Structures are given as structure tokens and as C-alpha cells.
TrEMBL record:
<feature type="transmembrane region" description="Helical">
    <location>
        <begin position="374"/>
        <end position="394"/>
    </location>
</feature>
<keyword id="KW-1003">Cell membrane</keyword>
<keyword id="KW-1133">Transmembrane helix</keyword>
<feature type="transmembrane region" description="Helical">
    <location>
        <begin position="338"/>
        <end position="362"/>
    </location>
</feature>
<feature type="transmembrane region" description="Helical">
    <location>
        <begin position="249"/>
        <end position="271"/>
    </location>
</feature>
<protein>
    <submittedName>
        <fullName>Major facilitator superfamily domain-containing protein</fullName>
    </submittedName>
</protein>
<feature type="transmembrane region" description="Helical">
    <location>
        <begin position="99"/>
        <end position="118"/>
    </location>
</feature>
<dbReference type="InterPro" id="IPR050375">
    <property type="entry name" value="MFS_TsgA-like"/>
</dbReference>
<keyword id="KW-0812">Transmembrane</keyword>
<keyword id="KW-0472">Membrane</keyword>
<dbReference type="InterPro" id="IPR011701">
    <property type="entry name" value="MFS"/>
</dbReference>
<dbReference type="GO" id="GO:0005886">
    <property type="term" value="C:plasma membrane"/>
</dbReference>
<dbReference type="GO" id="GO:0022857">
    <property type="term" value="F:transmembrane transporter activity"/>
</dbReference>
<feature type="transmembrane region" description="Helical">
    <location>
        <begin position="400"/>
        <end position="419"/>
    </location>
</feature>
<feature type="transmembrane region" description="Helical">
    <location>
        <begin position="166"/>
        <end position="185"/>
    </location>
</feature>
<feature type="transmembrane region" description="Helical">
    <location>
        <begin position="31"/>
        <end position="51"/>
    </location>
</feature>
<dbReference type="InterPro" id="IPR036259">
    <property type="entry name" value="MFS_trans_sf"/>
</dbReference>
Amino acid sequence: MFTKGYWKKRSLRVSDDQRTKAAELTLRESLYPIFLVTILFFLWGFSYGLLDTLNKHFQNTLGIDKARSSGLQAAYFGAYPLASLGHAAWILRHFGYRAVFIWGLFLYGVGALLAIPAVIHHSFGGFCVCIFIIGNGLGSLETAANPYITVCGPPRFSEIRINLSQAFNGIGTVVAPVLGSYVFFAFDDERALQNVQWVYLAIACFVFTLAFVFYMSDIPEITDADMAFQAEETHAGNDDKPLRKQYRLFHAAFAQFCYTGSQVAIASYFINYVTETRSNTDSALGSKFLAGAQASFALGRFAGVAIMHFIMPRKVFLVFLTLCVIFIAPSITQRENIGMSMLYVTLFFESICFPTIVALGMRGLGRHTKRGSGFIVGGVFGGAIVPPLTGAAADAHGTALAMVVPLCFFVAAWTYPVAVNFWPWYRDTADAFTTTEIGLRGHTVDEETASGGNGDGLKEKEIENPELISKQTA
């Protein structure tokens, strides 16, 4: 079993200038890798939801104000650009997606283990450092996982695919606040901090195990040559232009920055919002309400996926982000259940925005896909900027009025779906991928070349399978 050929197959280095079968993966071929990577989406959804709960928990136990508690979000999301434009991007370009998955899980596990002594010594600054390491791990995972899900399978289903996988991210964000309400807020402060330690130990054990699973798994690697082929086949590519002239990409990254900042700010101060604006609501009950709001978010993702089967994803995206703007506004002035319900509805419509920006922003990048995805994921840095601004406004004027801050950033992000729907240069590129038959009509690369054999060049031989095509089209 453990022969030289076996270990060669486990190699993490991939040649980016060689086309493989991955450019034309069918639905059936993409199921296992999508399943495996979707586990990662649950992981960082859980970590993100846990962070929102810890935000309020540390306000209570360490006596820090809202602005300082946002240091958790600043450390977590501030690590994303360092990963997506730095170390993870370098590993992705020089090795491949599987190498980045393993690297990200390793950093996640190390950060979780280091969090334990930080909690023991009641060190908020030390815990922020650990969260920064975890953020680097999760930023690495997002740098690889989002583009991987987008391109792993027929291109016409990329928005549906990434939203479905991201729906499990939403499930993770539901589980974490529920856990927090029973593990952090239902005990005295000392016991609650001990529980935090056990949670992070369990996380470390799980992610190290998952890293080993990724190392042992055979998942297809997707190269720059594969992406250039897709862009050429759909006639939507701009990869002949240098990266600095991929203006649609940078608009998508800007939209991601603004949108993510708003989303994180709302979730970070949700518990503060309901405890201040709703009668008889303590932190434990507020954490349960947050779990309900995150459930609304997860439900919105599943609903968005269903709608995208019938309506073009760019149109669904425009409607959902527009409704985010409309429903966040009343939460500024309304109180009690009405104000809270406005946030529930806002989270429902937030659901598809992040993954859809990723999918649309990567359209037509071709050989720039790996580097370009790093810029879009780097836009998550907004989660380190907007929450502190919101926290400062909340300390000065109350959490309800502070919702003006995420509202403004929602409006800025809204410029992207408007451009994608009404500017032909954006719209035509997006639509080219929704009509392509790539992944539905068999492969044009022979098995030997696709598996990294010694074949002489690419054999452009169509491998037809009418029975499979008819099933997938149906």
C-alpha cells in the first residue's frame, strides 16, 4: 500500500500550466470534494458564531466596553488579508488547493490550543493573539475553499454550489450561540471560562483530524490552465489583461469589504442590541435570540439556492442586498420585538450575499483566478474595520442608533449588484457562465494527461456519455 507511487500521489505540489480533467468536472465527479470542503464551511461558521457570543461574554467577565471587545473581530478578520494576499495565496499558487486546506487547518488547531492558556490567565490581549492565529487559519481556508467550490463542477451552477456549501456555514453560526447560551452564560464566570477551554480543545482535536483526512484524500486540483480554458470556452475571459486591469474583480473586493463589515457588525452587537432595546432580556436570552437570527440567516441561504434554480443568481443577489438596506433602516428607530424582527429579516437577506460576490467576482478571471480570489476573500477585512466603528458609535449613542454604520456600508456594497445587473460589461461576463455546457458534455482531456501521466500534450478527444449527460441536464 505505502509504495513510492502511493506517496507520490500524496504530493501537495501541482503544476499550474497543465490542463486537467478538473476544468470539466461533472456533477457526479464533484460530489466528494464538495462534501469534504463543505465541512470547512461549517467549521468557520461555528468559529464565527462563537466569536459573536464571546464578544458579549468578555464584556461581562472582564468588564471591557463594546469598542474594546470588538478587538476580537479586529484580530479575527484583520488576519484575513494577511492570509488571502500573503502566505495562503503563495501556497495556493506554488502548491495547490489541498496544501492550503491542510495549512489552514493546522493554523486553526494551533490557535485553538494556544487559546487555552490565554483563557486560564484571563488575558484578553492574549486571547486576541490566539484569535488572530485562528483568523489566519480560517482566512487560508476561505482563500482556497470559496474559489474551489465555485470552480469544482459545471460553471453554470457555481453560484448555487457555493451558496449551498455556505448554508452549512450558516448552520455553524446557529450551533455556536446555542452552545454559548448554555456553556458561557449559564454558569458563574470562573466555570464559564473553564468551559471555553474545553470548547477550544475539542476544536483543535477535530481540525487536526480533518487535516489528516485532507492529506489522505484524492481530490481534484484545479489549475490556472483549467481556469483559462473555462474562460476561453465561455468567451468571457479577460485573462489576457494584467491583474491590475481586472476592474470588475476590484469592485467585487470592495463590495465584499463593505458587505462583510456590515454583516459582522450586526452579528457582533446583536446581543447588545436586544438587551438594550427589548425588555426583560439578559445576555443568555440574547444569545438564544442570536441563534434564532443566525437560523434565519441559514434558512435564507437554502431559500436563495432554491430561488436560483429558477431566477438568475445576479438578479436574486440584487433583490436580497436591496432588502438588507431596506430592513436594517427601521432597526435604528424601532424598539422591542419590532426592532429585533427587523434584524432577523436583515440576516435572512444577508444570507446569499457573501458567496454570490465570490462567485460573480471570479467570473472570467481565467489564469488570474487563484490570485483574484485572494483579493475577494481579502475583502473580509471589512469585518475588522466596521465593528469597531459600530462599537464606538454604540458606546456614544447606544447600539440601536449605531446600526447607521452598517447601513452606510450596505449601501456602498449595493453598487456591485447594480453594476452586475445593469452594466453590460459586468452582466455579459456573468451570463456567459450561466449558459455554458462545460461539465455537462464530457471531458476533452485524456485520462493519462489528466492524472499527471507522461502523455505527449493534450489529446483533444471528446469523451461522450449521452446517458450521463441526459441525467445531469435533467
